[in-house]
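Input structure tokens:
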């Protein structure tokens, strides 16, 4: 809470942009003394009924005293927030702190009265719900724990705002007024409500961009060529079903049409709404276009111009200004430096991109940040021919450029419940908000496959990315934990997408292999083994196999309960009985349709027509051309070229030119299917009766009172971990041989003597650890050897520790990353984790099932389970330790780092031999606060 001298300082960090229920945006900010005229103008546009609901009496206008009261706040006990669009108020909310008697009060009073007023024209857009989230966050920051609101029974909308928020509340009725009281501490329900609203709003904002009823291309050149004219031509050729307009301030005054499209010199001149404006003018002219679009009520912009953050500091400021201007009018932006957007739905047929050809309609959603990657993705899909266009084409495509506003997170929100998208493919050069992306990815992956290529280098110029201390491999592991199918190349991205688009998920890793080439079958068999699948012996049909032979073999394989997927291998054959491409494809598709739902893949060698034939429809009738209409009316343009369509819902068969590619895609599908099954029952975070959460909180508070961040000493570390049932074996300092002997006597023989200097810690391979010292003589001899080898005791820093039961040395770590959140890591101590990077990771809080999988996820896990006849160790005890560490960092975000090394896991029990803990004020968590768009 602010002290008296600064209680009136303007809290700029309360300013935020929010997406409303209808997909538009608004700016939330504190109300100040400079807002008197805006407040009066706002109030004049509110209906008498809304005024009555607010003041419980007719209140036609605000008095000077009212205006002063509603614009003068101390930002502590009296706070007012406004939602603005175009700089003007559309809604207000305020709280006044009150005491137990209901009168104005100051801290430590922790209750406040709250009241809203929303312009009638903006009611139903979710403005009040968004303002409630923000005013509640402000109140919590100022020490207020409870809101009270009095509402007339007839004001059902406002009652619904409060009751639907998800807070713990109490309702009473007295003197004709409903009184609501609710705690402001976030609950599971309030967070769920908030995230559901976030999803609906952000999905709607993207839907408005991808399904416009009208598009204006601003910057359309007067002569053929150029970006604007190309976009206009692509929209026409695609057969855009809405209204289309060409805009250029350089058009002659008498020009009415351009290429049959209505032409205007300004967006303001367009008679009718414009949903999306494609901005194809140089960067220096974009601000003027943004103002025109905002004043005309345009809902969204696709900015193609370069010269923004990718060009340096000056461009970065230009980009910030672009976002500020657009959001001031409630518009969202794709770009700048964008390639464009595509929607192949027959109801839309939108190609507002630089792609010269409209992709065929299908079930794959594509997202890329750079135009170059977008071009590569679309061309790769196109080159796959029938293998992609028949199995499935593109539903929507977004190239976000610098993603100054609309990002991959927004598009994921849209795809989550988009009925036209079955598979989402994303090429992410950077992840701006890993914590949110992981949360959205987990939810999306539970409903439909999400395949991602993640850039491994630094973020491209122009991308705002939160700093993360996590290695790229760790972020990749966390994405896999969230159900993301992580691949490394565009080729693998497309390969996986083809399989997942229309093929069922495999029930397990067992793979049947059949075909007319023994060598290709064996190659596929070896590829399956390399990818961790369980292939059955290949069935060689010989090169004389007919289409009927392939059909019968595939039917048998699909009905075989010992296999979960089938890979068909095919090479060209010579002879009259050899099947042609179309005949073989028809046989395979017929067999796949008859058998149980199992994925079928084809590996073909030099069969150029087989991929197309496999995906072609049984009927060869071409799709009817889209109807054309006059420019500027629905149906503009000739529409896409005819193509043979597959039956809706058919499990069409993807074909691959190499066994390794097919098997790799299948292996990803197997792992994803297993994740889906496990995600249905994620487990639970167990409760442990011996955890002293309150005692740990008191200890942490007392320690942090010493400073902003500190690494705990040995005693403090042991005490804190002990509060969570994690005992650490004592290690006593031994600065002299005599001190070492006294320490060993206190601990009891046998003991270990260890060097703890930073360059020797945990380095038994260097001789810095001597174990199983049975008596004082052995101890003194080991002490002399240690100091002779590494230097004086003050350089070696020797300690004595009681021997632990022999077992496997492991390491457990937890860290709070500012971008990704709390991460729990596990591996074997020593070379496995340090040299080979063999560590597994999970996001905190970890469930019991996740702890079990974490232990088994490392490559060296067999050493824990009796590898080569060794004794298996106590993995249940290890899993419990992981769960306790997870609880510690989840319950106390001030614990920013924990390292337990080594943790010796014996056949019965385990011993924590070394531990370190670091405390610091916790990093801010925007995922628990009110909904906001990323700051610019």
């Amino acid at each position: 809470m602010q002290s008296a001298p600064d209680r009136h300082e303007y809290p700029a960090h309360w300013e935020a942009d929010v997406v409303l229920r209808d997909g538009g945006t608004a700016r939330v900010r504190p109300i100040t003394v400079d807002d008197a005229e805006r407040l009066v103008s706002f109030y004049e546009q509110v209906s008498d009924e809304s005024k009555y609901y607010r003041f419980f009496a007719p209140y036609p206008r605000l008095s000077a005293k009212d205006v002063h009261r509603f614009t003068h706040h101390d930002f502590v006990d009296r706070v007012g927030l406004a939602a603005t669009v175009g700089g003007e108020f559309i809604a207000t909310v305020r709280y006044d702190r009150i005491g137990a008697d209901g009168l104005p009060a100051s801290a430590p009073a922790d209750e406040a009265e709250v009241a809203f007023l929303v312009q009638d024209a903006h009611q139903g857009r979710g403005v009040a719900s968004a303002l409630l989230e923000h005013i509640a966050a402000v109140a919590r920051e100022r020490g207020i724990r409870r809101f009270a609101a009095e509402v007339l029974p007839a004001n059902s909308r406002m009652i619904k705002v409060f009751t639907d928020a998800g807070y713990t509340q109490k309702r009473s009725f007295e003197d004709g007024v409903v009184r609501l009281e609710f705690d402001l501490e976030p609950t599971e329900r309030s967070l769920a409500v908030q995230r559901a609203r976030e999803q609906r709003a952000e999905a709607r904002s993207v839907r408005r961009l991808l399904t416009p009823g009208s598009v204006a291309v601003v910057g359309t050149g007067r002569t053929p060529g150029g970006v604007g004219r190309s976009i206009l031509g692509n929209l026409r050729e695609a057969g855009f079903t809405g209204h289309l307009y060409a805009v250029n301030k350089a058009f002659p005054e008498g020009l009415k049409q351009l290429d049959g499209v209505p032409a205007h010199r300004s967006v303001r001149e367009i008679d009718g709404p414009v949903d999306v404006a494609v901005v194809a003018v140089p960067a220096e002219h974009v601000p003027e276009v943004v103002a025109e679009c905002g004043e005309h009520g345009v809902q969204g912009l696709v900015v193609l111009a370069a010269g923004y953050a990718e060009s340096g500091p000056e461009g970065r400021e230009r980009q910030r200004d672009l976002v500020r201007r657009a959001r001031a009018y409630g518009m969202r932006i794709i770009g700048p430096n964008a390639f464009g957007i595509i929607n192949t739905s027959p109801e839309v047929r939108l190609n507002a991109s630089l792609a010269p050809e409209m992709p065929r309609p299908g079930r794959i959603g594509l997202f890329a940040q750079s135009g170059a990657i977008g071009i590569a993705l679309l061309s790769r899909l196109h080159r796959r021919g029938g293998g992609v266009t028949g199995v499935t084409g593109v539903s929507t495509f977004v190239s976000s450029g610098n993603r100054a506003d609309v990002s991959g997170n927004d598009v994921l929100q849209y795809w989550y419940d988009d009925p036209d998208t079955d598979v989402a493919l994303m090429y992410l050069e950077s992840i701006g908000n890993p914590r949110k992306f992981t949360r959205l990815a987990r939810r999306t992956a539970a409903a439909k496959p999400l395949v991602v290529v993640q850039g491994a280098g630094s973020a491209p110029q122009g991308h705002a990315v939160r700093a993360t201390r996590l290695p790229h491999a760790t972020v990749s592991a966390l994405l896999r934990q969230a159900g993301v199918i992580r691949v490394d190349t565009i080729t693998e991205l497309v390969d996986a997408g083809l399989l997942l688009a229309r093929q069922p998920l495999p029930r397990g890793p067992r793979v049947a292999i059949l075909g007319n080439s023994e060598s290709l079958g064996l190659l596929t068999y070896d590829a399956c083994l390399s990818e961790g699948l369980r292939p059955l012996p290949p069935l060689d049909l010989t090169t004389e196999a007919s289409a009927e032979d392939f059909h019968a073999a595939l039917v048998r394989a699909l009905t075989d309960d010992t296999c979960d997927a089938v890979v068909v291998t095919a090479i060209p054959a010579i002879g009259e009985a050899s099947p042609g491409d179309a005949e073989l494809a028809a046989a395979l598709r017929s067999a796949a349709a008859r058998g149980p739902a199992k994925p079928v893949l084809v590996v073909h060698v030099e069969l150029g027509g087989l991929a197309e034939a496999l995906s072609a429809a049984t009927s060869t009738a071409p799709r009817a051309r889209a109807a054309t209409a006059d420019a500027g009316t629905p149906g503009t343009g000739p529409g896409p070229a005819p193509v043979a369509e597959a039956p809706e819902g058919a499990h069409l068969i993807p074909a691959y030119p190499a066994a390794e590619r097919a098997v790799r895609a299948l292996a990803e599908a197997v792992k994803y299917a297993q994740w889906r099954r496990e995600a249905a029952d994620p487990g639970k975070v167990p409760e442990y009766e011996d955890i002293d959460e309150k005692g740990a909180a008191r200890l942490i508070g007392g320690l942090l009172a010493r400073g902003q961040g500190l690494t705990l000493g040995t005693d403090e570390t042991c005490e804190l971990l002990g509060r969570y049932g994690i005992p650490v074996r004592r290690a006593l300092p031994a600065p002299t041989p005599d001190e070492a002997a006294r320490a060993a006597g206190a601990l009891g023989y046998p003991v270990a003597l260890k060097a703890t200097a930073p360059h020797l810690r945990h380095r038994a391979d260097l001789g810095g650890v001597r174990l199983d010292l049975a008596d004082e003589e052995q101890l003194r001899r080991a002490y002399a050897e240690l100091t002779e080898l590494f230097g004086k005791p003050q350089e070696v820093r020797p300690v004595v520790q009681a021997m632990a039961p022999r077992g496997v040395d492991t390491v457990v770590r937890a860290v709070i990353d500012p971008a990704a959140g709390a991460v729990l890591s596990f591996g074997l101590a020593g070379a496995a984790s340090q040299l080979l990077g063999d560590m597994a990771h999970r996001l905190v809080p970890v469930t019991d099932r996740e702890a079990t999988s974490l232990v088994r996820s490392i490559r060296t896990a067999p050493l824990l389970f009796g590898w080569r006849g060794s004794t298996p160790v106590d993995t249940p005890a290890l899993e419990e330790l992981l769960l306790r560490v997870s609880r510690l960092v989840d319950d106390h975000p001030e614990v920013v780092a924990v390292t337990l090394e080594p943790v010796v896991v014996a056949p019965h029990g385990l011993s924590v031999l070394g531990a370190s803990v670091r405390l610091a004020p916790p990093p801010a968590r925007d995922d628990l606060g009110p909904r906001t768009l990323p700051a610019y």
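The two ends are 27 Å apart (CA to CA). Residues 1-6, 385-391, 617-649 have pLDDT under 50 and may be disordered.
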